[in-house]
Amino acid sequence: MQLISRCLLPLALSLFVWGHAAVADDSIAAAIASARMPADRVEDSWRKPHEVLQFLEIAPGQHVLDFYAGPGYYSELLAHIVGPTGQVLIYNNELYNQAAHNGLTSRLARKRLPNAIRVNAPSNYLKLAPASLDRVLIVLTYHDIYWQPGDSPEPMGDPDKVLRILRDALKPGGLVVVVDHVANPTARENITPVANRLHRIDPQVVRADFARAGFAFVDESNVLRQADDDHTKSVFDASIRHSTDQFIYKFLRP
């Protein structure tokens, strides 16, 4: 009897993991198929949300932060997936909040996303409850931590401070997924100029930032890689708009 039990335990565990993944996958598909904002569906083709959210390992009941969420394309999908027992924090700093105000206000009107909460704060002073988050998603905006607006004496954030805030807010075992536009290898002193001019970031800079903050690199996805992208062009160049080479990294909070 003990031998049978030992043999059945791995099978039972495998079935549990498979079942959990199937539920999460169904939730992602249902969120994408839901009654979303019309403009979101136009973006689905180049954002590949199903693949990104699968990679995030998002599931019902989780608490997640959408970092520099802008008008909330991913915030809405996350809110549908985590459901009534989960929560989504839609975070923008002052600059992002101004740019995204109208779109985000429309998205949240009439309590469309009752489990989503807007959070506005300077990047280096974001207040989050310790060990309160399961997931953090940063899509096409990590480079903006290094971006220095023309009228600002410094970049939008200090990556060491920002990542320390995120690390403290994540539960042990929590995950961060970063999606961003690929830049060519960049010396430390040129990260901000590249972010200003091209709105890209060297993937190795991101790896180094997270390692310095105590995160463990887990995996990467190539689903948004574009081999023919010219990394010397701005991501807003019409010839490559919405078809840039993008890396997707996953990091673990030990």
TrEMBL record:
Pfam families, per database record: PCMT
Origin superkingdom: Bacteria
Signal peptide: 1-21
SUPFAM superfamilies tied to this protein: S-adenosyl-L-methionine-dependent methyltransferases (SSF53335)
GO terms assigned for molecular function: methyltransferase activity
Keywords from the UniProt entry: Methyltransferase, Signal, Transferase
GO biological process entries: methylation
Protein name stated in the entry: Methyltransferase
